[in-house]
Structure formats: structure tokens, C-alpha cells
């Protein structure tokens, strides 16, 4: 097959595999060759096992040739963020404290992708324990943006975004606690969807903030994101927060949206997220691309109106109390006793000293910062003043969403107030770094679905438009995002990432 297989989206790869114009081994080898040739500049992968990937692909080809019934994604390569526990595969969560750990089981999302016949290329780089917006907090070095190697690929799922945007994987799993799927998707020109909290199992995800963490797809097209969501979603009895309810037809919603008809859909533009009087911190080019995207939605038949959600202004402060508080509890399990790094166990120290030495060496600065902040917020005398108040704000944000969705079908905003910034620019300014998640935090705190879809460029760098919907109405996200994607592709005469491919 003369086509560069790494340039095909998942829909194209499935068609090529099904009609016999290529094989799973050829597709896998093409991606492994691309990783070998180009990932030295990006650092998107932490672990690649080409031998196992090719063996899996060869087994798919053998079974296809024998006429066996195969999974829905048989032979399609995939990359997993290194927070996804994977049986026998090194899983570090971007931290030295888990260096060398090989889990004895699969996370549910890994298990379901494996059952569908995917071929695991490897595990992708990330901010340590998913704490960051730039992938500069990885213990294994920063990942670089394929659009500009001197800029960040977003975070914490920056390895996943760089791998997919850099044509080193056709799609990837990311996780989103406060924006870690959507923000890296936005700054690398991808589609990234944070599903409704509880609609995709958290079993086997290394926990950061248990009431917020959610796995989801990072892809080059809306159709591919919907497909992956259908494969990984659904009830799981091993996750106590899993929703036991039928999912909406995501693929069909994306297909409907791609027809370009949004008649009857009401879109609310959130005033507090880049609207009039709320533009501090938003780059003019981002706002211009976002507003052009909104006008495209209007041209497709959507009714557009402005909506006010005043509590959204408090989301940043509330999130950075709730998430670190939960992290301080979750990360207490990393003690150097049962698995992972162990420091100072020379017989001269007691257990508490070994734990302290292990954590001091194993955790990076940002993780330590958030553990300290969270422990303080939960401490006696401060719990009600900080954590308790933050949870009240969370309730108010949920109320604002409920009021808005009484009048509109979806809400939209920029995904990130800025484009990808230079590596090192914000690493010493935590507050500036946290502000990168300004637009994504409200949906996270409310547990609602939200998708980022490319809506243009600012100074040659991608800008994302975010679509938010009520709980379990992820299909609305896919429909509106697919409509915008189709309109943008038609206007530019090709897919968004074709602009990046032309540079390579």
C-alpha cells in the first residue's frame, strides 16, 4: 500500500484492514518506524514494546486470514497514557516513585481496548500523577508540541496529544481531571472528549482526584473519538462510581452532526468564559478563532445566545482546593513498602524514615506542592474554611449548569484561553500554569461531558472550541463538534491536521 499509513485516521485504517489493502503488521510497523524516527524530538512515549506489538498484530492477521470473528478495532494501533494500569507493561504515572513497576492487571479501559483487538504501541508521557498543564512536570523530561518543538503539548496528557498530532499513533487514551484531555487536544489540533463522570470506568486508573478523574479519547476526528468512547464506555461493577445506564449512540450522533445541519439546536455562549467583560487572560487570536467558530455554528442552523454562569468565576479556586485535597489522600499509598521506589532501607532507619526518604526522592516538586496544599486544606481548623467552602462552590457551579441547560442544548467556550506557550515560560509560576485550565474546570467540577474540537489557528498554532452538555448527553457534544469539524474541513479544503502534515 503506497499511502503513508501513519497519516490515516482510525476510520481509514479500519477500512484498509477490512478490505485487505494492508495488514495489521504493516500498520503497526509503520507506526513503530515513525516512533523510532521522530519521537526522539518529541519525547511522547515513555515505553514502547515493538516486539509485543508486532506479535499482537501478527495474531490479528492470522485470525483474519482464518475467517475468525474479530473485535471491532482489530489491528488498529493505540497508545495509552501512562496513568492507565496495563498488565505486565511498565506504568509510572510520570513519576520516579513508580519507576519499573509492572502491574499484574489491566485497567478497564485497557481491557476493553484489548478485547476490541487493538494493538498497544506503548505508554505515553504525562505530568507526574496527572498534575500539570504542560507535561513539563514529568519525571522523564518534557514532551514537545509537534506544531513547534519549542512549545508545550498541553497537559497532563501531553504525551498522548503529541503522539497523535505527531502521527506516532492514530489515537490515544488520555485522562481528564481538570482539563487534561481537552486542553492538550486544543493546543495540538486534536479532538479530545471528557466523558460524563462515571460513564467510563476509573478502575485501574492511578488516582489523582477520585471525584474528578475521567478517561477519554484523544483523536484526529470527532468520528474516531465517538468510536473509542463506545468501546471503552459502559458500566463496570469494579468502579463504585460507574453509572449503570445505557449510553447514547455516540457514533450515530457524530455521523448526524457531520451532515452539517444543526437546525433546532440551541447553543449558549458562556459569558464568563471569554465573553464580553471577561477577556482578561484570553489571547485575542484565541477569542477571534472561537468567535468565528460560533458564527459557523450559527450558519449551520444553530440558534446562538449568550448565557451567564456567574459561579464559573470561582471554579479555578475551588478546583485547586478539591483536587489537591483528594490527591493528598490518594498519594499516601505510595510509601516505598509495597511496590515502586524504596529509599533508605539499609537497616539503620525505621519505617517512617524510609517512607519519608522514598517520598522526598520519588515525588517531584509539583506533586509535593499539591500534597502540602491538600493536606493543609483538610487539616483540623481549616477543613470547613477551605475544602468545605470549595465543595459549596462546586454545588453552585452545578446549579449554574442546570439553569443554563434549561434554556440551551449545549454550552460553548474556548477550550484554552491561550495557545501553546514556550517550554519553560510558566514552570516557575504555578498560578499562571493553573490558569491554562480556566475554561475546562467548570465541566470537570460538575462531572459533565465536554469536547474540544479545532476551530482555527492563532499565530500559526491551534485553537480549540469546547462544547459542554448535560450529564449523559455526550451525544450532543459529538453532534455539534462533528458539525463544526465538517464545516471547517470544507472551508479549508482538507482536515485540520493536514496543515501540520504538510510541514513534516
UniProtKB/TrEMBL annotation:
GO MF term (any one): ATP binding
Residues spanning the signal sequence: none
A GO-annotated cellular component: glutamyl-tRNA(Gln) amidotransferase complex
Domain called Amidase: residue spans: 26-477
Region (Disordered): 135-158
Active site: 81 (charge relay system), 156 (charge relay system), 180 (acyl-ester intermediate)
EC number: 6.3.5.7
Catalytic activity: L-glutamyl-tRNA(Gln) + L-glutamine + ATP + H2O = L-glutaminyl-tRNA(Gln) + L-glutamate + ADP + phosphate + H(+)
Enzyme class name: ligase
InterPro entries per the UniProt record, alphabetical: Amidase, Amidase_CS, Amidase_dom, AS_sf, GatA
SUBUNIT field: Heterotrimer of A, B and C subunits.
UniProt similarity note: Belongs to the amidase family. GatA subfamily.
Official protein name in the record: Glutamyl-tRNA(Gln) amidotransferase subunit A
Organism listed in the record: Klenkia marina
UniProt gene name: gatA
Amino acid at each position: 500500500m503506497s499511502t503513508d499509513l501513519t497519516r490515516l485516521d482510525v476510520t481509514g485504517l479500519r477500512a484498509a484492514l477490512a478490505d485487505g489493502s494492508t495488514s495489521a503488521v504493516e500498520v503497526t510497523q509503520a507506526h513503530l518506524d515513525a516512533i523510532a524516527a521522530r519521537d526522539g524530538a518529541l519525547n511522547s512515549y515513555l515505553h514502547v514494546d515493538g516486539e509485543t506489538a508486532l506479535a499482537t498484530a501478527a495474531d490479528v492477521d492470522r485470525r483474519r486470514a482464518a475467517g475468525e470473528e474479530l473485535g471491532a478495532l482489530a489491528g488498529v494501533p493505540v497508545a495509552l497514557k501512562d496513568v492507565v494500569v496495563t498488565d505486565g507493561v511498565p506504568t509510572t504515572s510520570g513519576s520516579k516513585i513508580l519507576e519499573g513497576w509492572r502491574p499484574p492487571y489491566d485497567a478497564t479501559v485497557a481491557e476493553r481496548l484489548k478485547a476490541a483487538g487493538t494493538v498497544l504501541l506503548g505508554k505515553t508521557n504525562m505530568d507526574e500523577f496527572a498534575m500539570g498543564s504542560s507535561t513539563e512536570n514529568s519525571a522523564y523530561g518534557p514532551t514537545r508540541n509537534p506544531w513547534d518543538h519549542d512549545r508545550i503539548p498541553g497537559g497532563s496528557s501531553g504525551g498522548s496529544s503529541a503522539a497523535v498530532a505527531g502521527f506516532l499513533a492514530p489515537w490515544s487514551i488520555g485522562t481528564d481531571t481538570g482539563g487534561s484531555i481537552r486542553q492538550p487536544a486544543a493546543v495540538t489540533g486534536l479532538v479530545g472528549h471528557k466523558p460524563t463522570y462515571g460513564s467510563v470506568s476509573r478502575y485501574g486508573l492511578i488516582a489523582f482526584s477520585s471525584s474528578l478523574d475521567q478517561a477519554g479519547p484523544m483523536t484526529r476526528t470527532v468520528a474516531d473519538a465517538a468510536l473509542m468512547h463506545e468501546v471503552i464506555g459502559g458500566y463496570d461493577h469494579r468502579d463504585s462510581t460507574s453509572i449503570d445506564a445505557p449510553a447514547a449512540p455516540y457514533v450515530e450522533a457524530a455521523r448526524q452532526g457531520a451532515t452539517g445541519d444543526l437546525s433546532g439546536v440551541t447553543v449558549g455562549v458562556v459569558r464568563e468564559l471569554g465573553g464580553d467583560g471577561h477577556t482578561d487572560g484570553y489571547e485575542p487570536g484565541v477569542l477571534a478563532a472561537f468567535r468565528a467558530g460560533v458564527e459557523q455554528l450559527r450558519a449551520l442552523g444553530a440558534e446562538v445566545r449568550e448565557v451567564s454562569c456567574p459561579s464559573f468565576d470561582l471554579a479555578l479556586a475551588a478546583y485547586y482546593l478539591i483536587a489537591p485535597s483528594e490527591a493528598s489522600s490518594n498519594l499516601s499509598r505510595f510509601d516505598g513498602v509495597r511496590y515502586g521506589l524504596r529509599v533508605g532501607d539499609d537497616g539503620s532507619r525505621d519505617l517512617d524514615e524510609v517512607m519519608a526518604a522514598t517520598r522526598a526522592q520519588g515525588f517531584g516538586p509539583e506533586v509535593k506542592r499539591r500534597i502540602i496544599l491538600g493536606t493543609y486544606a483538610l487539616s483540623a481548623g481549616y477543613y470547613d474554611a477551605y475544602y468545605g467552602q470549595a465543595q459549596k462552590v462546586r454545588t453552585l457551579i452545578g446549579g449554574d449548569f442546570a439553569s443554563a441547560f434549561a434554556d440551551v442544548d449545549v454550552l460553548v467556550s474556548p477550550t484554552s484561553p491561550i495557545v501553546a506557550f514556550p517550554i519553560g515560560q510558566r514552570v516557575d509560576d504555578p498560578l499562571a500554569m493553573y490558569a491554562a485550565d480556566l475554561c475546562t474546570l467548570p465541566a470537570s467540577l460538575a462531572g459533565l461531558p465536554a469536547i474540544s474540537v479545532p476551530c482555527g489557528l492563532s499565530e500559526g498554532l491551534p485553537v480549540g472550541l469546547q462544547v459542554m452538555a448535560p450529564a449523559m448527553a455526550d451525544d450532543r457534544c459529538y453532534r455539534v463538534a462533528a458539525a463544526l469539524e465538517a464545516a471547517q474541513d470544507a472551508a479549508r479544503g482538507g482536515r485540520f491536521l493536514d496543515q501540520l502534515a504538510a510541514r513534516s
